Amino acid sequence: MADKSSYWVESEDWHTAGEPFRIIQHLPSGFLPEVQTVSERRIEIIAKGLSVAISSRDSDISVDLTFAGAVIASVDTTQLGLEVKPSNANKFIRIQREIKAFLGDRAKYGPNELYAMLFFEEEENGKGSGWIVQKSINVYGDGQIDRSPCGSGTCGRMAILLTEGRLRENSKLLHHSIIRSAFEAEIVSKGQSPVEGFPACVVRVRGQAYLVAETRFFINAEDPVAPGFVLR
User: Fold this and answer.
1) Where are the transmembrane segments (predicted)?
2) From the centroid of its chain, how far is CA 203?
3) Which of 7, 55, 121, 202 has the fewest CB atoms found within 10 Å of its own CB?
């Protein structure tokens, strides 16, 4: 059997929004794990807040910004009067575009631009003491919607909950997506944010992962740009 550890490639920025990825020539027999869930530890996550005005609303909207390998904006849907459900998807896309345009460079963290926006709502806690339960729609790119609650976004939600003082010892977040897929998250350690006045944390996220696609790249030794190129 092939050495599984040799297939993982760590990357600082391969347009994956901080998500780990792997390059595989083929899947050897028995390569896929038998476990039903996976977990990962993230880099330190920070949070800060802004108020924005958008043309479709009569009042300002409070937006929380976090950096968890990617810049994520969080918006409480109680400000919008919208429920997180599939029939409202186009409304959330329209609002995401308005807020993103209004924020502009103010949403940047270093060289990192705004990647995604989570519109979240509180859900009834059926998990018992120590749990916070939320549901989000994650709108990213040019109006795309994530099938998951978003790993970076879930980490960002944890940083905001920590900043708000809502996380007690051993507290966890059950984070649902708009289609009810779910991640569980907990804080592994706390730290000092480079942004004054805000804490930072390292988060562990647990959820189910599925292989959904395979891409092949071919390198020709005679190709003058075989290693690739970057224009911006």
Assistant:
1) none
2) 12
3) 55
How many domains does the chain divide into?
A: 1
List of long-range contacts for 167-170, beta carbons under 8 Å, 24+ apart: 167/132, 168/130, 170/130
Q: Count the Cβ atoms, other than its own, within 10 Å of residue 173.
A: 24
Q: Give the structural domain span for 76.
A: 40-207
Domain membership flag for residue 196: yes
**Mind listing the pLDDT tens digit for each residue in 12-57?**
334 444 454 444 445 555 555 555 555 555 455 666 666 565 655 6
In a domain, residue 194? The reply is yes
Instruction: Say what the alpha-carbon torsion angle 88, 94, 98, 103 is, to the nearest 10 degrees.
Output: 60
Q: Which residues of the chain have pLDDT under 50?
A: 1-18, 20-25, 42
One-letter amino acid of 225: V
Measured distance CA(126)–CA(105) in Å, rounded: 40
Report the alpha-carbon distance of residue 81 to residue 86 in Å, rounded: 15
DSSP-H helix ranges across 1-148? 89-103
154, 203 Cβ separation under 8 angstroms: yes
Among positive and negative, which fits the CA dihedral 84, 89, 95, 98? positive
In a domain, 138, yes or no: yes
The answer as to whether 197 is a domain residue is yes
Hey, what are 187's tokens? 């804080």
Beta-carbon contacts of residue 198 (< 8 Å; ≥ 6 apart):
46, 47, 48, 163
